[in-house]
Amino acid sequence: MRAFLAIIARDVRLGLRAGGNIGTAIGFFLTVVVLLPIGIGPDMALLQRIAPGALWIALLLSILLSADRIYTADYEDGSLEVLSTGALPLELVALAKALAHWLIAGLPLAIIAPALGFLLNLELALAPMLLLAMATGSLALSLLASMGAAITVGLRKGGLLISLLILPLYIPLLIFGVSVTTGGSGGPDITWPSYLVLLAIVLLALVVSPLASAAALRAHLR
Amino acid sequence: MTEPTLRLCGRELACRRGGRVLFSGLSFEVAAGEMLMLRGPNGVGKTSLLRLVAGFLAPVSGTVVLQGGRADTPLAQQCHFIAHQNAIKPQLSVEENLRFWLAFLGAGEGSLAADENVRLEEAIAALRLQALRHLPGGVLSAGQKRRLALARIALAPRPVWLLDEPTVGLDTDSQAALCELMRRHLEGGGIIIASTHVDFGMPATRTLEMRPPEQPAAVDGEDDWFGADAAAVQADDDGAAGEGRA
Predict the structure, then answer these.
(1) Helix or strand or coil: residue B50?
(2) Are B77 and A85 an interchain contact pair (Cβ–Cβ within 8 Å)?
């Protein structure tokens, strides 16, 4: 358990220091959300309609953008080899690194998203559900992204490949994440059923991602 | 720290990298308190042999066994592997780097926090890192980074040390410090396998001369018990106890 927490603490610290992940992810998120209304124009009703979806897409892309850093640095400087000789199974190492990525990229974005939502004329009533859906969903986003990062770890330009591999897996999260936010407006209320499906996907990713990541990392270390 | 009966044996190992056979039929044995030096030209497979022992590479054939080790623990977890890369985070200070590895590698030993601080201080002192402890890893020189990487082996007790060219970039004083660390490890019943071009002058050293498989194996000494196509083995037993093999 101590080794597990040590990895999380180290990765969070690395993310917060210069050259870390957190700046990249938040900067990109901010750019998309600021540029979108400028590109679409001052149609308040349209902006309000697309706000939840736009925020979710910005979240997906920011997380993907920072994903290739999850394992690359550790792979290049040899830390990954040492991590694989510890008493902690590689699966838990992978889980710790994914959780750290969530803490420095997914969770901060989920927290600032409702605030930035005002740039997109997000309905105030939707903000709490958006926060809840994003905070939960971004955990699955980080887990899946770290799986992609583990698969592409030895490749020079792995970032693009991660997007291609992982974006299809993001589609269910996007659908249910948005419908948690907007489920209450129009038609039957599907907010909580959607949230339960979102939770189910998070739990699935929580199990599959560490196993798949560890298998991929083992293959790369050979 | 380790049982005196410890013995690391590699038998009939073969390794293939990139479709090319690096070595085959390679065998070695190192007992507790002994050091095995791997020598040979670049590209002959010294690093691959070390990675194979550490479990990062699967041998094409053959086995590596640590006799007398903890049976419930994989060999990789009983080894310290110092590779070419130093596993240092440039954003973290020397002490933070070491504290992380201490928490990661030392976990599971059931050690106390006070214990760990002692080990940290010992490791810092052993590699003479006191003056550098608050500097970020990114500003260290190549030799200082190497010392920081080597300090890792002093953090957690593990019976087998696998050192891949440990002296690269080290000045003479640091080499002496490393020698001292290695001598203490051997006296404590540990095992060291090092690929190196420097003679450490350890009391019990064996040498494994590795040669490319194309060339006929040159046999140093009269025995060719390893008579394989890959490597001739010369045992330099300067009074190494219990040479009951062959």
Answers:
(1) helix
(2) yes
Residues from chain B that touch A6, judged by Cβ atoms under 8 A, are 100, 103-104, 107
- In chain B, the N- to C-terminal Cα span, in Å, equals 28
Interval B128-137: pLDDT, tens: 888 898 999 8
If DSSP codes are grouped into helix, strand and coil, which group holds residue B21?
A: strand
Cα separation, B115 vs B123, in Å, equals: 12
- This prediction's pTM: 0.85
pLDDT less than 50: residues of chain A:
none
Task: Find, among B210, B200, B214, B176, the residue nearest to B27 by Cα.
Answer: B210
The predicted pLDDT at position A198 comes to 94
For residues B206 and B218, what is the distance between their CA atoms, to the nearest angstrom?
Answer: 17
- The amino acid at residue B122 is E
Measured N-to-C along each axis, helices A127-151 and A107-116 cross at an angle, to the nearest 10 degrees, of 140
A212, two tokens: 């798949």
A154 — contact with chain B (CB < 8 Å)?
A: no
Domain count, chain A: 1
Residues 6+ apart with CB under 8 A from B115: none
The CATH superfamily label for domain B7-90+157-234 reads P-loop containing nucleotide triphosphate hydrolases (3.40.50.300)
- In whole angstroms, what is the distance from residue B204 CA to residue B199 CA? 12
Q: Strand locations in A25-91, DSSP E? A: none
What average pLDDT does range B16-30 have in this prediction? 85
| Identity of residue A198 | L
Least confident of B18-27, B30-39, B149-158, B207-216: B207-216
ipTM score of complex: 0.86
In the block, tokens 């080597």 appear at B150
- Give the strand order in the sheet containing B7-17: B20-31, B7-17, B61-67
- On whether the CB atoms of residues B67 and B111 are closer than 8 A, the answer is no
In chain B, where the domains are located:
7-90+157-234
Chain A partners within 8 Å of B100 (Cβ): 6, 9-10
Looking at residues B81-107, what average pLDDT do you find? 88
Segment 94-133 of chain B within 8 Å of chain A by CB: 96, 100-101, 103-105, 107-108
Query: How much is the pLDDT for B107?
Result: 61
Tokens of A174: 């996007």
Mean pLDDT of chain B: 79
